[in-house]
Design the sequence.
């Protein structure tokens, strides 16, 4: 898995972990936050590595689905980009774009 995808999934996990099942959230936390291997997680839960992998994939898929529907991560990134532009130039349209994000008018 690429570092970019790992970072993206870690950020999505931070946003959406409360929407996952308890077991998915625990396994994803061990894998992404605690840097456990599949084998270590399997041993911890007394299940196979394949079962861990399947659970992680389902959790990752759920995170991706939540982002596709809610777009919280996308909005945060866009907000940060707009704020960075605002630091560099005084522009009313940027401020209006930020306000539009808060009103769910993302296109």
Sequence:
């Amino acid at each position: 898995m690429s570092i970019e995808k790992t970072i993206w999934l870690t950020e999505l996990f931070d946003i959406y972990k409360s929407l996952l099942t308890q077991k998915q959230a625990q396994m994803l936390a061990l894998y992404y936050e605690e840097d456990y291997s599949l084998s270590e997680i399997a041993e911890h839960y007394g299940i196979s590595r394949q079962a861990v992998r399947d659970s992680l994939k389902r959790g990752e898929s759920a995170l991706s689905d939540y982002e596709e529907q809610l777009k919280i991560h996308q909005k945060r990134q866009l907000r940060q980009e707009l704020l960075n532009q605002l630091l560099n130039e005084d522009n009313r349209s940027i401020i209006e774009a930020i306000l539009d994000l808060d009103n769910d008018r993302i296109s």
Notes: The chain has two domains: 3-70, 73-102. The two ends are 30 Å apart (CA to CA). Residues 73-102 form one domain. The chain has a mean pLDDT of 90.
